[in-house]
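Running log. JK asked me to keep both predictions on one page so they can be read side by side. First protein, sequence followed by its tokens:
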Amino acid sequence: MKVSVPFASFLAGAGASYTSQQWQTLNATVEVDDAKCTAVRQDWKKGQLRTNFPGAFMNLQSEVCLSEPVDQCLVDNTIIPAGIPTNNATCNQGSVPSYYIEITKGSDVTAALKFAREHQVTLSVKNAGHDYMTRNSGKGTLSLWTHNLQGIEYRGSFVPKGCKADIGRVMIVGAGTPSGDAHIFADEHDSVILGPYSPSVAVSGGWLLGGGHGVLGPVYGMGADRVVEFQIVTPDGKERTVNACQDPDLFFALRGGGGSSFGVVLNATHSVIPREPIAFADVHLPSNISSETALEWIKLLVHESLEWGRQGWGGHVAGTYVTHFNPVSDFISDNGTKARASFQRVTDFALSHGGTSNVAVYPNWLYIWNTFLLPLTTMQGGNMGMGSSRLLPDELFATEEGKGKIMSYFRSIAELGFNPVNFYTPVTTPFTYQRLQDPEGFAAKGMGTSLTPAWYRSLWHLQTIGSMAWNSSYEDRVSFVTKLTNSTVQLEALAGPNAGSHFNEANPFMTGWQESYYGRENYERLLKIKAKYDPKNILTCWKCIGFKDKQDIPSSRYHCQGKLQQDVYKNLGLKPSS
């Protein structure tokens, strides 16, 4: 176990006396590695730098103090190499944890939890650092960095501990293992693992704990549907093997309960799928289309999506493209004839506007991923991007009235300044999977996960995305988040009262998150499980299970989010949920 300070953390003792000039004099007397500094600035926006460094995060909202713009390191992310702070500017800590522990085994977590209990230290947990929601960092916290919990194992058959039934082929994947490595390893064993789009997102980390949606999810389900066992250290310091037969309540909570609320995961065992050919559709418009053309295109996507969902297609739709995948046998057995017919109307539209279309059957998932997806998934970090999201029920796509409501929403957010050309939405809900597993009762219930049941009766995971400047003022941030939250309110009105949103990709400042993430019944059950395994709320994060709006939003622990949250509430006349 290694305990370190990721950035300078100045602790002033009693009677400490110093000036800024004295710090500068000290700095001039020690050796500075200019080459290393230049390399960091050159790679400032690269995901590899940010995932492999404990004090860096993919999204700036996890590094800065959103409520105090002076409390951050003012590095200009609009140029490469990144611009260094101007003369006399102070590089402040922001929300970057003051200390971190590199977790390499369960006993590291046990020691950290013991220390936190004894000294009342607040913890945060960071894996690869992709979180949008400000949960993987925290001002003054001790960070548990799980990125180096690597390792993958394949088994052709697997019986979870304490169970009797053989699950079949599985992969046991360390919490920090990136999905890119998992996809390659799975293919080497003639298998496919359901995973995230980006190769640097950990397949057994926060992606999975928040539900785990992926482009093959419409047919194969959520990550939470496919996980069969966890190795975890709970807040009492005990390392546990958790599955449907051992600690089944905790197993339920980990399958969608989100974040590190219930413990620190060391690895997860995933049910994997035999490798087969996959149909692929990739239809693009030119990037310079007008807003009106984008709205026409989106209208076409809205009209086509329900039938695509019934056929097993899933992937992404956007203001200038649709990229979809289908492993269903009907669409891979005829050399792509049915697949091309499914996308004929969008192909015609794209070609008539100078676009391109590629609809074909390819030998396997890894071939498609390497050939078509990896060149497009060089995820850039160092931006302050946020979004609002809502799961759109399939019933909205079934009537002209419902489709009209969706298009009215797009026109209304365009008036708020969101360009429809920049529209992007995952189509990754377990739409077909749910019907295959439970054809009689799919609309009435979920599949035993702690996710909101809305995941299992929705078609689109509709998002509105924007970003703030690296040097934005507090007034700019309040204005942006107010507009974002206003769009969230409109999304809620569109989706209806029984819809939900994704724990990992919602608006961090939305109200009513409890029902939105879980549904009321699941939320109440999760609270009881939290009280059982973490009665003192040692593992806490922003709007996770155990978070209390009225108590935590104004607290010092969450000042960097809370002050901003309260001002947005005032602007929109909203109130805390609990």
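And the second, directly underneath as requested:
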Amino acid sequence: MQFGLCNASATFQRFTDEVTRGLPGVYIFVDDILIASKNPEQHCQHLKTLFSRLDEYGLCMNVSKCIFGTSTIDFLGFSLSENEIKPLPDKVKCILHFPKPDTLT
């Protein structure tokens, strides 16, 4: 896809949505893919299914950017785990330390 097109991001998102349509536990935002699974066996099956689909569409992954089999992960500005979703501290730091207004206008 050419750089600089005003709708390139939306077009690529639509394409990746089509690639991963119907895959259980797979969530994608542009080129970031999250796979949520209940157990290691299910995770392996989700990975196999995703890899097969990526291959079908001629897509590849940069393995050095991948994290496999973890129970917590930072994704799109949030820390995700089985029990909670919370914003990353460095993403809310400026809000927490924003000075209180000292005038009414």
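Observation for JK regarding the second prediction: The chain has two domains: 1-69, 70-104.
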